[in-house]
Amino acid sequence: MDSSRIGFLGGGNMARALIGGLIGRGMPATQLRVGEPGSEARERLARDFGIEATPDNHRAIDGCALIILAVKPQEAGAVLRALAPALQVARPLLLSVAAGIPIASLRAWAGPGIPIIRTMPNRPALIGAGVTGLYAAPGVTAEHRRLAEATLKAAGHTVWLARESDLDVVTALSGSGPAYFFLLAELMMQAAIVQGLEPAAARELAVGTLHGAGALAKASDGDLARLRSEVTSKGGTTAAALAAFAAGDLNGTVASAIQAATQRSRELAAQFGDST
């Protein structure tokens, strides 16, 4: 088994993000292989990255030390059950980016003894700016953890989690989080238009502010409260806006949103993670 060969099960957006990141970091395309049932998706993968994309999942994982499960959650069970005999022989590291599928279900489908790491990446991984939460099942070696981390860093930052249940909160925070920031920027743009700003200017300013604020936070020590205070002059325009947010109970709204997304993640895990 080749320790540098990676097999992907599923060739969707997240697989493409990782493939592009890995190749961009110097991994030869010949070391990557994708199992993908869609002919158009296979053609795009071969054209864009020069990798082998096959409808045969057994071919995709043959000889690979790392298998990345990147199929839709509802497809994961059927895909892994079909591959279980081969997985039991090779015993590769199984790294799942399939949202919501618990390790117990992955193990039931793949068979005992397979080292498993669950992850929750987010959409900015498509441009190498993602952040991914990882949880390693008991028994996963330090070398397996290093392999998983090095692979996912091709798409951005990584954060290890202490409990598998933390992945539901990560899903609510960073997995769904980009949509929250997009919504805020969209509402800011719309409000500026109401105040008389030209739509094109409002859009450019809202998007630029979204990008710049994120870049500034990333370049700092991560103290978000301090960064906010540095923008907020006493009695100034920012203070007035923040007071309006407080009056509208923004804190409570955000807390409710994160709680709702976390609960929905748990519900989906129960729905798609049925190991029977």
What do these coordinates show?
- With 276 residues, the protein is α/β, with parallel strands linked by helices.
- It has two domains: 2-161, Rossmann fold (3-Layer(aba) Sandwich); 175-266, Orthogonal Bundle (ProC C-terminal domain-like fold), CATH 1.10.3730.10.
- The protein contains twelve helices and eight strands.
- It has an eight-stranded mixed beta sheet with strand order 3-2-1-4-5-6-7-8, with helices on both faces.
- Helix 1 (13-24) links the parallel strand 1 and strand 2.
- Helix 4 (76-90) packs across helix 5.
- The radius of gyration is 21 Å and the shape is elongated.
- It starts with a strand and ends with a helix.
Q: Could you write a compact summary of the structure shown?
A:
This protein has 276 residues and is an alpha/beta fold. The chain contains twelve helices and eight strands.
